[in-house]
Amino acid sequence: xxxxxxEQIAGAYRFLGGKESNFYDGMMTYSTLPGRAICRLVWNxxxxxNLAYLERALSGVPEGFAGKLLEVPVGTGVLTMPVYNxxxxxxxxxLDYSEAMMAAAKRRAAGAGIRNVTFVxxxxxxxxxxDESFDIVLSLNGFHAFPxxxxxxxxxxxxxxxxxxxxxxxxxxx
Length: 174
What we know:
- There is one protein chain.
- This protein is an alpha/beta fold.
- It has a single domain (5-169), classed as Rossmann fold, CATH 3.40.50.150.
- It has seven helices and five strands; from the N terminus they run H-H-H-H-E-H-E-H-E-E-H-E.
- The protein has helices spanning 5-15, 23-29, 33-41, 47-58, 81-84, 99-112, 149-158; strands spanning 68-71, 91-96, 117-121, 134-140, 160-169.
- The protein has a five-stranded parallel beta sheet with strand order 3-2-1-4-5.
- Helix 6 links the parallel strand 2 and strand 3.
- The protein is globular and about 40 Å long.
- The protein starts with a helix and ends in a 5-residue tail after the last strand.
- The model is unreliable at 9-21 (pLDDT under 50).
């Protein structure tokens, strides 16, 4: 039985309740005291707003998606691996520059038995993929970390197929 996107995100939240939670995952899932503090103080988000924000960001990945998806950066995969678990026919590539973040995402994928994800270490400003390679490019709160945002935007759109979907979210405070 397939879970709704909200249930997938909520599952990521529950997964992190224990002592192995780290600061990044706690902030992404609003599941730890420091994570909640950052969300409230910096981004003015409570649990429900954070959940709605992430649900909307992931809405560009349709249920049952079976095409090619690129996630940049994957981070620890805390939010996306539960989604990818329900996309067994998709061809998913997760890219990150941080070996530590990608190692956490790999462990998370392996622990969930996800086999259709490939991990690539690389720079989003110089993606190692051919033009028009992906149906969806997903980025959850990653663009703030890219040193050359213009190159990152150019590259993500370069690898996106015509008519493809760029989806995600960005922490911006105005």
